[in-house]
Amino acid sequence: MAGKWILVPYNFTDYDERALHYVIRTFADQKAVHVTLFHAYTPLPELDSYSHPGLGRLKTIMASMWTEVREKEQELKRVREDLIHNGFQENQVDCMLRSRAKNIGSELVEVARKGPYNTVVISQKPRKATRAFTRRIHDALITELRNTEIVIIT
Q1: Which of 2, 43, 70, 105 satisfies CB 3.0 to 4.6 Å to 137 for a cystine?
Q2: Order of strands, sheet of 93-99, starting from the edge strand that comes earlier in the sequence
């Protein structure tokens, strides 16, 4: 576990791209750095295929949502490849995609605590309307994580 273990929540926004550029500029070509890209998606319910026949439209919608999750997984892998292309070794970058069971702040705290992470790099949207939401995520990280460097990219 020696070295710097970085958790980067990634939600496919331009702001998340800024966080990635920070990670590349700051840590590329350093051998003792490990980066995990993390994305938590809203859980999708399982449908019984033999249940009510009126669920046909809902099943179509669910299939579309599962396709979107698979596309996010592929995009996360492409972002991983981008990090590798920009100076990281393959064994230095991982992806973590999982269904969200809690709010995103709690999910991040849980992942950071259970893993070897000593740094979390997150982005912040500067618009006023989104500050309340992102502030809750930042507050959760700052109040719940100890001995963890939290880098907020604006």
Answers
A1: 105
A2: 93-99, 33-41, 4-9, 119-123, 149-153
Report for 48-52, 60-64, 76-80: range of highest mean pLDDT: 76-80
Q: How would residue 121 be classed by pLDDT, with cut points 50, 70 and 90? A: very high
Domain segments of the chain as ranges:
4-42+77-153
Nearest-angstrom CA–CA distance, 30 and 92: 10
Q: What is the pTM of this model?
A: 0.83
**Cα-based distances in Å from 116 to 4, 66, 107, 151:** 9, 30, 15, 17
Mean pLDDT to the nearest integer, 29-56? 78
Alpha helices in 30-55 (DSSP H): none
Residue of 82, 90, 80, 115 lying closest to 31 (CA atoms): 90
Amino acid at 79: V
Q: Which fold would CATH assign to domain 4-42+77-153?
A: Rossmann fold (3.40.50)
